[in-house]
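Record pair follows.
FIRST:
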Amino acid sequence: MISCRNLSRSFGSTTVVEGLDIDLPQGSVCAFLGPNGAGKSTTVKLLTGQLRPDSGEATVAGWDVLRRPLELKHCIGVLPDRLGLFDHLTVEEHLSMAGPIYGLSRPETEARAGQLLHVLGLEPARYTYADHCSHGTRKKAALAMALLHNPRVLFLDEPFEGVDPLTSRVIRDLLQSLATRGVTVFFTSH
């Protein structure tokens, strides 16, 4: 489901990812561990098409990351390290906005959003603006956006960083559930 060969990326004279090889089958969970600055976020960006490698190749869910970026984006979910939320949108508005981007109809978006708000314990924050949410609530809202379209592969950059133990448990249980349903999960952690 995720495969890369000799993936490398440098920024100036600093090599951040060098000769990376990965083979992850469908339904697997991979924790990509390392200290800050080890290239974990860069690897996620390379595997999701957000960044071009200097060398190497990668396929995710059968799609070449560089040659088929639009097809790739419809079958993956990404929780970025910076979350990507808009301060003046509510949790529910973020989900309503994300649905059509992934080709979901309004009824599909509403149904999926309702499920995710429930599963992630976001119902109390449904109408809260992102800039008024705790870090853990913001992280769960961004995770809900990544899951909205039922991706086949999920990339999570530091999903447990800065969240309380209860939120960590909710995220961990969700990841286990997704893997049992055949979703491949790749997450970073330090």
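SECOND:
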Amino acid sequence: MQYDVFLSHSTIDRAIVDLIRNELQALGYRVFVDYEALPAVQPEEVTRETADALLQAMRECASLVYVLSAHSAGSNWMPWELGFFDGARGRVFIWPVDDEAETYAKDRRYVNLYPSVPR
């Protein structure tokens, strides 16, 4: 595996994602973040090219961390990434970013299927 962690996130949460990436890297993990590794990919555009690039990246990762926020519901890719990764690797973790994310999780019961990173 080229990466230990694939960070699944909303593009609106970039500042939070940077903090999470930094924290994971400080612990020694190799972290994939799309806007760093695939700068040409436009996540707001749902295209076959974007899907193929994300699929290839997920195949090179050992686990997925789902960065759960109030913005997750608006992401075109997060549910798709979660479903693919669960089926392909099964190593999925939920990282709720704040109390609002915890509330959001109650409405998206599928995130409760996976272990959660304590805040």
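COMMENT: Helices lie at 14-26, 34-37, 48-59, 78-88, 99-107.
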